[in-house]
Design brief:
single chain, alpha+beta, five-stranded antiparallel sheet, elongated
Length: 203
């Protein structure tokens, strides 16, 4: 006969009779729920895949670290910037990339976004060379766990360009002052010659 079973704590089944219509309704509900769950999982996978594509194609290095400062995400640009491959850097400490600067990174995460502008730290490449890195840091939570998203850019080229501009401006200023000084000397010599000529004429 039509029935369903309910198990109590001692795992003893209790037979609960159900009408055929109730059983059909229950089965339809379970089927519908299963279909909705499968659709949700498929959508979640699709969204996750899209996010992964966006993450890997991002122009900035993106690094995700957990509360233990372990690196959990390291996108393609981060690999190019720091020279590490995911299999060698994932689960390693952020200290590997920013030695003795973890405390500063944590403080930056707690600061207002306006206070994070132009925050420059010293990054370390896999080959041991250091370079200036500009950071933007934000806090996120997933499943009650806290993480930091670190977006960073190698600004070596920018700093070199700025230094080159400063050097050129200084060279222009030096040339300008030298020109003015040369003119002043020329005028002084002319005045001295004019004065000497006037004395000779007077004599």
């Amino acid at each position: 006969r039509n029935c369903i079973f309910i198990w109590e704590n001692d795992l003893t089944p209790i037979e609960v009779p159900k009408s055929e219509s109730e059983i059909e309704f229950l089965l339809e509900s379970l089927t519908r729920t299963q279909s909705e769950l499968q659709a949700t999982r498929a959508m979640t996978r699709e969204v996750s895949n899209h996010l992964d594509v966006i993450l890997q194609r991002a122009g900035e290095a993106i690094i995700l670290i957990n509360d233990d400062n372990q690196i959990k995400i390291f996108n393609n640009t981060a690999q190019k910037t720091f020279g590490h491959q995911p299999e060698t850097i994932l689960d390693e400490s952020i200290e590997t990339l920013f030695p003795r600067q973890t405390g500063l990174i944590r403080r930056l995460a707690e600061a207002e976004s306006s206070e994070q502008e132009n925050r420059i730290l010293e990054g370390v490449h896999q080959n041991g060379t250091t370079f200036p890195v500009e950071l933007c840091i934000s806090s996120v939570e997933f499943n009650d766990d806290s993480y930091l998203i670190i977006m960073c850019s190698d600004i070596t080229e920018r700093i070199n360009t700025q230094k080159e501009i400063i050097d050129k401006n200084k060279a222009l200023q030096d040339a300008y002052f030298q020109t003015i000084f040369g003119w002043a000397q020329a005028l002084e010599l002319r005045d001295m010659e004019t004065l000497g000529h006037s004395k000779r004429v007077t004599i």
